[in-house]
Amino acid sequence: MGQKINPNIFRLGINKTWKTEFFEKKTHELPLYTFKDLEIKSYIERFFETQGIILHDYKQHYSDSTLNLYVSYFISSEFIIDKKLDNNSKVTLIDKEGNKKTVLDTSLDTKQILNLKAPLFKNQNILNSYKIKEYLKANSSLLLKPDSNEIVPVKKFVENSTSLKVEGILNNLFKVLSLFTNNKFNIIINFCCLNKDLNFLKKTQKKNFILLQKFKGTPFLKEGIELLFHVVYNRSSAHLLTKFIAIQIKKVKRHKFFLSFLKQTLTILSNSEFSKVKGIKILIKGRLNGVPRAKHKTITIGDTPVQSFNSTLDYSQMTVHNANGSYGIKVWIIEK
């Protein structure tokens, strides 16, 4: 009939739990907590998106005066750790007679500073694109004191209250969250980076990936294999897969070529030993390949009992806009 319920909401209390937990003392606090949850989640997702980071999973938990956030993410190829500011920029001066003179300008305009993408952390090397993981591993839990801008590790805060100031954009994340909550909560964020070394994947699946040779040279091959591996290996990865498809539909013009890569790669990975996925169903509707009329494309891999309560299912949907119009993306992932 077209009146379809969200599969995640439909399974709450059976094999799904709420990703946001809180206890309201009065009835009028319920819409307030719901509004805060939606706003904080959308801000964190947009914040990561501007840095080239894809949000994988997000959970929120309120306890007394503490706000706990659990964030897992995937670092994409667009992520820029550091961008050195060139103070010695060249400026060309032209006099009334039309003579040109090139001068070194040592002062940097404030507009240029705002336009440049600031580093996430201080003293990072651009050669190591995953150095952020080492920092987050050492300080996986960071805490923001209320009524102050100090960010301290939880362990040190409990033991001797020594402060650790995180510089760069991450500091802005804590400032925005503290302003949004009116400095009433101690904010604790637990980060988890999905990107790991995939040497064992290359060795075990070397023969299988020979089938993907026709996609050699495409911009989505290397990153796509790594991201789709984490989709199959980690649970609750429907949002990560949906976001990846949305990004590629904006970039790539040959949509059906990309979808054939998606189906072949997911088939190879889902049939492997480390797979935690029983089946995947993807539904995309829009002007694929820029055709005049919109069509829908369905990709089904493995067993997909979408209407069964016994199956552990993760669902995500998203709408993307580009020059050809709007595209609707729906993803169902059935876990083992």
Q: How do the helices and strands line up, and which of them pair or pack?
A:
Elements: H1 7-10, E1 20-21, H2 29-50, E2 53-63, E3 66-75, E4 89-94, E5 100-105, H3 110-115, H4 131-138, E6 141-144, E7 151-153, H5 154-159, H6 169-180, E8 186-193, H7 199-204, H8 221-233, H9 238-251, H10 255-270, E9 277-286, E10 295-302, E11 312-322, E12 325-335
Give an overview of the whole structure.
With 336 residues, this protein is α+β, with helices and mostly antiparallel strands. It has two domains: 7-80 and 119-193, K homology (KH) domain (GMP Synthetase, Chain A, domain 3, 2-Layer Sandwich); 199-335, Ribosomal protein S3, C-terminal domain (Ribosomal protein S3 C-terminal domain, 2-Layer Sandwich), CATH 3.30.1140.32. 32% of the residues lie in helices and 27% in strands. The protein has a six-stranded mixed sheet. Strands 10-9-12-11 form a four-stranded antiparallel sheet, with helices on one face. α2 (29-50) links the parallel β1 (20-21) and β2 (53-63). α8 runs antiparallel to α9 (238-251) and α8 crosses α10 (255-270). The longest helix is centred in the first third of the chain and has 22 residues, at 29-50. The two termini are 30 Å apart.
